[in-house]
């Protein structure tokens, strides 16, 4: 086998891997969107230049908001935000490169999740849904959680 044949074989193999990856990513996105997922971007490191955003989709699953990366063939969630630990903070405007990276209608909200700061960028309608989901936690689950931690004493 000469060098030209080997190069062609390697090129075809790379092309097949790229095409299969694109198909897997498209299929995963399609399944997520059909299951009620929302477009959402997030970042954990709050850099002043506006970089570090991860583009993806989010799906509510019981008491968790599952965050999936948009350009990853991995089927599992990249992050899990638990309803009890997530607190929405103030909204802010896009700065630096953010207007170029995020969707045009994105609203950026600073949050905390278990003491860790992060930011979420979602459409206004999705933010309304997120707030409703957070507020819909049954009051009994909060009091039971506090009782088990020993906060409430009889």
UniProtKB/TrEMBL annotation:
Keywords: Membrane, Transmembrane, Transmembrane helix. The chain crosses the membrane at residues 6-27. Pfam families: DUF2550 (PF10739). It comes from Nakamurella multipartita (strain ATCC 700099 / DSM 44233 / CIP 104796 / JCM 9543 / NBRC 105858 / Y-104). This is Secreted/membrane protein. The lineage of its organism: Bacteria, Bacillati, Actinomycetota, Actinomycetes, Nakamurellales. InterPro entries: DUF2550.
